[in-house]
Amino acid sequence: MKVGVSACLLGRNVKYNGKNNFSSKLVEKLKDLEIVEICPEVLGGLPIPRDPAEIVDGEAVTNKGVSVDYEFRKGAQKALDIIKNEGIELVILQSRSPSCGKGLIYDGTFTSKLIKGDGIFVKLLEENGIKAMDIEDFIENF
Questions:
Q1: Residues 119, 39: Cα–Cα separation, whole Å
Q2: Which helix (H) or strand (E) holds 83?
Q3: Which class for 36: exposed (0-12), middle (13-18), buried (19 or more C-beta within 10 A)?
Q4: pLDDT by residue (tens digit) across 19-30?
Q5: In terms of DSSP bridges, do strands 114-116 and 104-106 run parallel, antiparallel, or are they unpaired?
Q6: Measured in whole angstroms, how far is the alpha carbon of residue 5 from the centre of its chain?
Q7: CA 86 to CA 13: how far, in whole Å?
Q8: Which residues, 6+ apart, have CB-to-CB distance to 56 below 8 Å?
Q9: What gap in Å lies between CA 67 and CA 141, rounded to an integer?
Q10: Whose CB among 24, 34, 37, 98 lies 3.0–4.6 Å from 7's, allowing a Cys bridge?
Q11: Residue 91, SS3 per DSSP
């Protein structure tokens, strides 16, 4: 089975702060699968590091009030194209991210408060019939 995986979960320093969310538990569970790394934010042209962003009224905005929605959506589309071209049916994503968050995302106040919702990339995946899973759900259930 071939799966798409948020690059930060595999140890790539692509997060807004230049760090990663490496998960040895995830890597162990993926050892027999073919992996395609993706980071929609980087694919959209955002730099590393970059100002943190959250979803505010449906739009990706930095903590300085700058819209990065175009870059988020451009990157989500590029990542979707990769997923489709690779024939991937499952994508494992970083929790709470404005791109990759599944089920819970930050509320747009930059106060670490979570609300129900999905990131921009997750919504695009689901609109295209591709299963998206949060890393925590994947680790628990596979």
A1: 13
A2: helix 69-86
A3: middle
A4: 999 999 999 999
A5: antiparallel
A6: 8
A7: 23
A8: 108
A9: 36
A10: 37
A11: strand
